[in-house]
Amino acid sequence: MDRPRLFLSAVSLEFRSVRQSVAATVRTLGFDPVSQDDFPTGYGELTQWLRQQIDGCEGLLQIAGTGYGAEPARVDADYGRVSYTQLEFLYAQRLGKKT
Fold this sequence. Notes:
With about 100 residues, the protein is an alpha/beta fold.
């Protein structure tokens, strides 16, 4: 039986080590963590990949701090000018995912 997936969202530079610790804890709780750290080199467009990953997750756990994070090169048609981290949260909420 597949374990439920949980998307871990956080500004990469500010919380990389925290996200890794949270991922280890999430595994012990029976979830498979997914995060931007899993983005395959050469995949293509990051925004599309993030949406696909969130589509397949039960929910999203967001680690918030003071950093804003990087923005997609193009303004998002649904959310306007937002960071990748903001886009992850807004998209998960729009889908009715647990956040």
